[in-house]
Structures are given as C-alpha cells and as structure tokens.
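Note to self: keep these together.
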Amino acid sequence: MKASPTREWTFRRPHRGRLCNVEASAQAGRVARLARLMALAIRLEGLIRQGALRDQAELARLGQVSRARISQILNLVHLAPDIQEHLLFLPLVHHGRERLHLADLQPLCRLGDWQDQRRRWRRLCERLPLKDPQAIQKELEVAGPAR
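Structure:
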C-alpha cells in the first residue's frame, strides 16, 4: 500500500494578531467557482497522468466525492485551450450569485470539435450576462494574469 502524500502548512500571524484582514479580503471579491474548478481539473488531470493517482475512482475515494462529480470536473480539460483560459481568468465575484455554472459547460465538454465549442461558448456568453470573450481576452492582455 502506498503511503499517502503529506503536506506541511506554515501560518504567519500579521503584526496585529489576526490571521487575515477580513475588511481587505471582503472588498477584493472572491475567485469564481468555475475558475477554481478549472484549476482543480488541470491539477487532477496532471496527477493522474503522472501516476500519482491510479484512476478517477481512486481520486473520488480520496476526495470523498462521487465518481460522477469527478467526471464532471475533469470534463473541463476537454474544452478548447482558449475557453480554459477564459475560465481561469473569470472576473472576481464581488457579491451575489455567479451566473455561469458547471452544468452550463457540460454540453460544451462533450463536443469534440473546438470550433463548435467556441461557437457555443460565444452563444453562452451572449445568453448569460457575462463579459464578451473578446473583452475578457483584451483585459488579460492589458492587465496580465495577475490575481
């Protein structure tokens, strides 16, 4: 039996004795759930390819989630690279609910042709009150991927 991987964490306390500055983090907003899921999918795909995990079933057991949920998350790696980039750099969510959900992307993940995926992605961005994909791309070029 393989030994499970371990991680070490170091927490440093700021000068005033707090673990984090709540006021500053509340103003900054939160990373979109789909951005976190896309990053997770890329990371998990890499672990499976490297052989650190045997398969998706082992991953589901370790993560204490269903195999179906792991499949939904890992389906994101089948998206065109530019769509993946858009997901990774979705705007921060400052308040309220997110407009784009994993279920919205599952039909795109099933398409094998990236051009079809891109057409559907554009339609999805038009249907939902999201920023236009080209506008997101322009923001990335101007601001850079600093998050």
